[in-house]
Design a protein that fits this description.
single chain; mainly beta; OB fold (Dihydrolipoamide Acetyltransferase, E2P); two-stranded antiparallel sheet; 48% strand; globular
Length: 155
């Protein structure tokens, strides 16, 4: 058994590009940046902040969702799988590209979940259900509880 699953939360680097095909299908492409905070080790060594860029590919109904809602600077949650493809560049050198094929996208703004585009359940659904709107409160940093949450733990 194997698993190919990626979960990312990051900011969109530029507005997505969307291509429509004669069949009516659409594919959106965009990049997101994830950043690890810098820190200082106990011996005084400083580890700088590190930003990684990820190429995201979205198809079908999710591509239309991305075209409508996701813009440069948007904070997005992405679930998907890694795929690597190769091509020959102009000088004939073989190049490899690793992309995240998104199965689920959640659009975040100012810490509030606004829209979701998710592929239908496990039965090999060919299209995603329409995007739904929900308004639950989500903290800006997923590892920090919102300030109004009371902690009733005994320790």
């Amino acid at each position: 058994m194997s698993l190919n699953k990626v979960i990312l939360i990051g900011n969109v680097g530029k507005d997505p590009t969307v291509k429509y095909f004669d069949s009516g299908n659409a594919v959106a492409n965009f990049n997101i940046a994830t950043t690890e905070r810098g820190y200082t080790l106990s011996n005084g060594t400083e580890v700088p902040e590190r930003t990684e860029w990820h190429s995201i590919v979205v198809s079908r109904d999710r591509a239309q969702f991305v075209e409508k809602w996701v813009k440069k600077g948007s904070l997005v949650y992405i679930e998907g799988k890694l795929r690597t493809r190769s091509y020959d560049d102009q000088s004939g050198v073989k190049r490899y590209v690793t992309e995240v094929y998104a199965d689920r996208i959640e659009f975040y703004s100012t810490g509030r979940k606004q829209e979701t585009a998710e592929e239908g359940g496990g039965g090999g659904s060919a299209t995603a259900p329409p995007a739904t709107t929900t308004q639950p409160s989500v903290p800006e940093d997923p590892f920090v509880a919102p300030p109004d949450v009371t902690d009733d733990l005994p320790f």
